[in-house]
Amino acid sequence: MSPLALIFLIIGIPALIGLAYIFVRGSAGLRRYILTRIGLLIPMVFILASLVFFVMRVLPGDPVRSSLGPKGSAETVARMREQLGLDDPLIVQYGRFLGDIVTLDFGNSLTGGRRPIIDEMSERFPATLELVIPAAGLALLIGIVGGTLAAARRKRPFDYALRLYSVVIYSIPVFWLGLIFQLVFGVRLGWTPIAGRIDPVIATTLERTTNILWLDAIITGNWAALWSSLSHLVLPVVTLGLILSGVFLRLTRVNVIETLQMEYIGAARARGIRERIVVGSHALKNAIIPVITLLGLQVAILLAGAVLTETVFSWPGMGQYLVQRISSRDYTAVQSVITMFAMLVALISLAVDIVYSLVDPRVRY
Predict the structure, then answer these.
(1) Whole-structure pTM over 0.85, yes or no?
(2) Is-contact 346 49, C-beta < 8 A?
(3) What is the assigned CATH class of domain 118-327?
């Protein structure tokens, strides 16, 4: 079983069980809401995948020329185009592409040895997952804690400092921040590695199962590989997490401030409950609902940021793979990666919407 299939099984089976439980035990309004959201997934993915298919063929460049280089003869180019099906009518290529999506068989890449794309994704997707999940967790942690503290100290120097931080950090290009971190912490101070996922020598000693290196290191008890993979993970995770933390901080602050002005908060204070408990328990619990929705919307931005982050840190994930295939005009690979990203964003948005409907029943009706 490929690492990609294993990861999808680990994530997908519990998610399907949870969805089935919610659907069966939920109210009629909740079941109707879930069916509506699932029905919207298919046209959304279809429209985005179709858009990518036609845009890739409008852009200048030829994957065959890119693969063969300037020395490829006209006869060789023509023969390869025929083998790859690029001379077929556009409608035929489009129908073949839709069939590949339905069967989840993305075919072979047009360049780079023409390997099966699913094999290349199996090698790359765990690396992106290894980067994106901790970055999202860091962004949420900084955003929720910082936003709550800023709201509790409204119109004080600490509040102004956090608000300034949120604006500045969200305005900084992710590639620029990554380069600065590489220069300061990697080159000047020598605290962390500046590129790659793991030391090349240690990588030869690691037995890979999921291709999430720190997890494989724990499974096999390879502590040297665990330390190396975690040290390589620090800079890219901090870079991507900090960039996204600003928007969560501002949203949390605004919602906590609004919640603190409600009557039940005043009643809690009148009963003598400590301010720390009022803010951290009573106010934050209700203010966190819009942050859940924002997390689903930020998934696409998170993946876009991962493309730049992986490029800066030479992180061998899906983002770097996408940039390489765009440069070589590999239609099949680019279509497959973006279609997979679309499916991922759609599924996460569905999960977030369902969680939101459980937290706030008003959205079901």
Answers:
(1) no
(2) no
(3) mainly alpha
